[in-house]
Amino acid sequence: MGIARGLGCGVVNECLKLRSDSYTNTVVPFLFSVRLNMKNDARSRNHPAYWAFLVHRISGVALTLFLPLHFWALGNALHGEAKLETFLRWSDQPLVKCAEVALVLLLAAHMAGGLRLLMLEFMDWPRVGDSEKTLLACAAGASAAVGLLFLLNLL
After folding, report:
1. pTM here?
2. Cα–Cα distance between 118 and 134 in angstroms, integer?
3. How confident is the model at residue 41 (pLDDT cuts 50, 70, 90)?
4. How many CA atoms lie within 13 A of 119 on its CB side?
5. pLDDT by residue (tens digit) across 118-135?
6. Residues 6+ apart with CB under 8 A from 128
7. pLDDT 10s digits, 81-122
8. Alpha helix locations (H) across 16-127?
9. Which of 132, 11, 117, 2 is nearest to 59 (CA)?
């Protein structure tokens, strides 16, 4: 017990060494200085991968917010044909149709972005920079194509 406790204290003391950090000119614990040295400037926010991340995150949140409404509509179908018919008549409004197109576009973007991430994780790519931009373009093109096909189907 004493040996294990001594080893544990040594590891903690080693990790929490204090050092002078030139980026902030303060003395900070070693574990936190790595986070402070990361620069977050405008260049990283203009990269296509950042925009892909943002679209993937926003589409995921939007789809999560849509799910309760979808389950409510399915619940109406279980309560009788009249309630479902009322909901279906309401969903024929032009604003709801536009929201349906946006929802399908978000779903396609989320799916294509997820497939892009899976391909980046599990496939061997010789040059990551070029292949990542190619995958971004393919994901965006596939999302737009699915959204346009859905829109043409509605017209």
Report:
1. 0.59
2. 14
3. low
4. 17
5. 887 887 766 556 677 777
6. 120
7. 888 888 889 989 999 989 988 999 899 989 888 888 888 788
8. 30-36, 42-45, 48-78, 81-90, 94-122
9. 117
Question: Within a 13 Å sphere around the CA of 50, how many CA atoms are in the beta-carbon half?
Answer: 8
Alpha-carbon torsion angle 117, 121, 122, 123, nearest 10: 90
* Element containing residue 133 per DSSP (H, E): helix 128-154
Residue 5's pLDDT is 44
- Tokens 């292949």 map to which residue? 131
Tokens of 23: 């980026």
Integer Cα distance of 144 and 105 in angstroms: 7
Q: Cα 68 to chain center, whole Å?
A: 20
Cβ contact 145:111 at 8 Å? no
- Report, in angstroms and rounded to the nearest whole number, the Rg of the chain calculated over CA atoms: 25
Using DSSP's 3-state secondary structure scheme, residue 23 falls into coil
Q: How far apart are CA 50 and CA 75, in angstroms?
A: 38
